[in-house]
């Protein structure tokens, strides 16, 4: 008798592949780390193959895991489409979605594609801009739903992911030693003031070396 794969376990497996770790995947799925680990162990037992390489730095997929990933995505997409079609309302109309330009790739195209399959009568218009501009558009009704990148959430908003800010430099680079420290930011970057306050608290002098309207300038 053919055996069936656990769709919840496949969803956890896909999420691990996307975020690169069991702990981060558990946070996105609102599950405990042990629950996600157990799902993967059951999935590996059902297939008789190791799916994750836990010996490497972080978590990566084995060869069998890479093969499964493509199948798993198609299975979950079909499952979600069936559930939406059979149990959901037949929505129609237009939805204006705002996304910061640095958050569009790589996930938003796939999300929009899946949404279109599940709700073919809804036309989604995507606008991409800085967070502050998107919030202004949302406030005046020019956008129905927006994603933002900022250090806090407004009333009525929801935090989807919480990522720590870190300082990153080139291997062997010397720029971080300069005093005052040269900074480069877009004018309306939400993280500009946060970085400046962090430097002030650390007693590190800085100057704004480059300012611009777009990331291309930076």
Characterize the structure shown.
- Helix 1 (7-19) packs across helix 4.
- The chain is α/β, with parallel strands linked by helices.
- The model has no long low-confidence stretch (mean pLDDT 88).
- It has helices spanning 7-19, 22-29, 33-47, 63-87, 108-118, 131-139, 192-201; strands at residues 52-53, 60-61, 93-100, 122-129, 145-146, 181-186, 206-212.
- The chain has three domains: 7-83, Winged helix-like DNA-binding domain superfamily/Winged helix DNA-binding domain (Arc Repressor Mutant, subunit A), CATH 1.10.10; 93-146, 3-Layer(aba) Sandwich (D-Maltodextrin-Binding Protein, domain 2), CATH 3.40.190; 175-212, no CATH class.
Strand and helix map with partners:
Elements: H1 7-19, H2 22-29, H3 33-47, E1 52-53, E2 60-61, H4 63-87, E3 93-100, H5 108-118, E4 122-129, H6 131-139, E5 145-146, E6 181-186, H7 192-201, E7 206-212
Parallel strand pairs: 3-4, 3-5, 6-7
Antiparallel strand pairs: 1-2
Helix pairs in contact: 1-2, 1-3, 1-4, 2-3
Nutshell version of this structure?
The protein has 218 residues and is α/β, with parallel strands linked by helices. Helix content is 42%, strand content 16%. The protein has helices at residues 7-19, 22-29, 33-47, 63-87, 108-118, 131-139, 192-201; strands at 52-53, 60-61, 93-100, 122-129, 145-146, 181-186, 206-212.
